[in-house]
Amino acid sequence: MEGKYVSDPEWASIQPIPLNDGSETGAMPMATIAYSDDYIEATSYLRAVMAANEISERALKLTEDIIFMNPAHYTVWIYRAKIVFALNKDLLEELEWLNGVSLKYLKNYQIWHHRQVLMSSQDHFPTLPPKEMDFLMEMFAQDSKNYHVWTYRHWLVRHFKLWDSPREIADINSLLNSDVRNNSAWNHRYMLRFGPRSDEPDGGMTNSNGPPSEKGRLAVVDEDVVDEELQYAQVQIVKAPENRSPWSYARGVLRAGGRPLSEWTGFAQKFVLDKREQGQLVDVEVKSSHAVEWLADVYAQDGAAQESTAAEAVRMLNLLKEKYDPIRRNYWDYRIQMILGQEVLASA
Amino acid sequence: MSLASGPGRAAGLLSDQELCPEKHIEYIKKLDSRKDELEYWLTEHLRLNGLYWGLTALNLLGCPDGLPREDAINFVLSCQQNNGGFGAAPDHDAHILYTVSAVQTLVTLDAVDELDNRGLGGKQKIGSFIAGLQDQETGSFMGDEWGELDTRFLYGALNALSLLGLLDMVDVAKAVSYLQKCENLDGGYGISPGAESHAGQVFTCVGALAIAGRLDLVDKDRLGRWLSERQLDNGGLNGRPEKLEDACYSWWVGASLAMIGKLHWIDGAKLAAFIIRCQDPDTGGFADRPDHTVDVFHTLFAVAGLSLLGFEGIAEVDPVYCMPKSITRKIFSA
């Protein structure tokens, strides 16, 4: 073997432990893997230093080498974190280094857990370090829906209690301005505005263990925030009526505020225009299938009491079933049957 | 197999699409000679998963003896560590994701007894490893000693423990309570409380609730609505709103729908046609979408997706475990 470690005097004291991949015992039905020589050598030294539980600068450098070759190597990350804390390294420098790895490997779980492990250290980070959010925005510039980054950011918000930080809502506004269809950003916005706060259990919505009708409903409602957010959603819907996210967001906002869907009946009707000639309905102009769905839900709720409203609900659902969303015809049929079944019950 | 539509079966299946099962069987059996793909999909860190993916796909394709049984058992056992858990490959630290693949593989091969005969302790030892990963405070599960929390780990834990008949080694009620916190207003579930709904995480949460016997906690109409919204005009399914379709979501979305009895809410014929377009009829195997390079991960979840749809010639899959139904039926009736 003629690798860089075997020829490095710094590593002369270490006896590398070779890979046991099961191939020698015939225990590998799916064959051995063509690893690169560099990787095979580096991991053989890793096994040796880990077995000796060595905490040193050279071991730290070795973990870096291996992480750059294979960031999915979960064990090496645990070892690295242990060394970083034991040697009392500058964690800001460690974060800086991690930024580079993150930008190189966009879809990796371990990188983000490592960051969370570092950031959890109250001694080093009693408050949010100033460049952290800048870096996350740099990540979003690569992939604005990166699930790992969003999950980490949500953790940051809870850890440092950032729900009302001006930076949070500014970043969300900026991301939604550049892509109003970014559902991840809408989800984060919801958590900032209506998610459980620090004195509440860590749930995705308030009352998450409650009955379905109460899930997401706030005990104390700031009506101004509800109004503001409904207004914001309407502005975004007008820009792109077929974008599902703000419609879903508005449902969540109304739920949080304990208000009915029917508050938006007038707004939704602007996207579903009946064309009449001499009083007869001849056509419907639909500018958003989500508005049709919204109206169907409103009419279905009210329709239990009134037959003509139920008929309107069925008309909306048929529009979806036949013209605007036929791929889900069985779902729309189910909804129609629910309403017709209710009528049968009501008249029985 | 029945092509009738109804709860649990997708509507209107066409049978005129050409599936190439023999090609797929050959593809999996010959994975060892495809170093270029192996490097990506069966790298050291996925190897035990890879064995489970390949073996399960072969079972569903009607070729349960496609891999040499003894070699497969030997390999699984060689990945076990002293703490009872399994690593991705020999000499690798134990992690829940590989431990569940090990258990599923041994169960599929009807070789759980080998743990007592030849392993580093019987199945109790695996149970202890998994039980030690439960976070006592929240009921969630870590993947390993590092402490990362993810609903994938929780699902894996309940999956493996239930297959071993050891579910009572953990606090199931607490795990269920944690899963409830991962539910979002749209009816979906995320990787942790407050995280965006994601079809892969929906599968793990609903699967875990199914194992815990608590599907009554799922808002089936709302979740079914969100899941069925994942189908795009081309028939394929995505994992989140405004994302691209991917053959593996045929499984994550499809199995979740099947578990809550709403699989017929999507267009099964269009989905089946999409999945078939993802196969490579020359080399065998399936890719994430048409004309992309195939791999064993997408091959399993494409085949399993077809199985959910009742596609002719493919064995029935268990939507909770992603294992042949004939095997889970035997385990749980014993």
UniProtKB/TrEMBL annotation, chain A:
**Keywords in UniProt for this one?**
Magnesium, Prenyltransferase, Repeat, Transferase
In this entry, which stretches build a coiled coil? none
Q: What InterPro entries is this protein classified in? A: Prenyl_trans_a
Needs which cofactor?
Mg(2+)
* Pfam families given in the database record: PPTA
Residues covered by region (Disordered)? 197-216
Provide the E.C. number(s) assigned to this enzyme.
2.5.1.58, 2.5.1.59
Question: What PANTHER family does this protein map onto?
Answer: PROTEIN FARNESYLTRANSFERASE ALPHA SUBUNIT/RAB GERANYLGERANYL TRANSFERASE ALPHA SUBUNIT, PROTEIN FARNESYLTRANSFERASE_GERANYLGERANYLTRANSFERASE TYPE-1 SUBUNIT ALPHA
Q: Which family does it belong to?
A: Belongs to the protein prenyltransferase subunit alpha family.
The protein's name in its UniProt record: Protein farnesyltransferase/geranylgeranyltransferase type-1 subunit alpha
Automatic annotation (TrEMBL), chain B:
The Prenyltransferase alpha-alpha toroid domain covers 21-323
One matching Pfam family, short form?
Answer: Prenyltrans
Note on cofactor? Binds 1 zinc ion per subunit.
Report the EC code(s) recorded for this entry.
2.5.1.60
Looking at the UniProt entry, the stretches that span the membrane are none
Which class of enzymes does this protein belong to? transferase
Q: Which UniProt keywords apply?
A: Metal-binding, Prenyltransferase, Repeat, Transferase, Zinc
Classification via InterPro entries: PGGT1B-like, Prenyltrans, Ptb1, Terpenoid_cyclase/PrenylTrfase
Keyword Metal-binding set for record: yes
**What cofactor is this protein dependent on?**
Zn(2+)
Q: Which SUPFAM superfamilies match?
A: Terpenoid cyclases/Protein prenyltransferases
Reactions catalysed, semicolon-separated, are:
geranylgeranyl diphosphate + L-cysteinyl-[protein] = S-geranylgeranyl-L-cysteinyl-[protein] + diphosphate
Q: Does the keyword Zinc apply?
A: yes
Q: What is this protein's function per UniProt?
A: Catalyzes the transfer of a geranylgeranyl moiety from geranylgeranyl diphosphate to both cysteines of proteins with the C-terminal sequence -XXCC, -XCXC and -CCXX.
Sequence similarity: Belongs to the protein prenyltransferase subunit beta family.
List, alphabetically, the PANTHER family matched.
Answer: GERANYLGERANYL TRANSFERASE TYPE BETA SUBUNIT (PTHR11774), GERANYLGERANYL TRANSFERASE TYPE-2 SUBUNIT BETA (PTHR11774:SF11)
Task: Tell me what this protein is called.
Answer: Geranylgeranyl transferase type-2 subunit beta
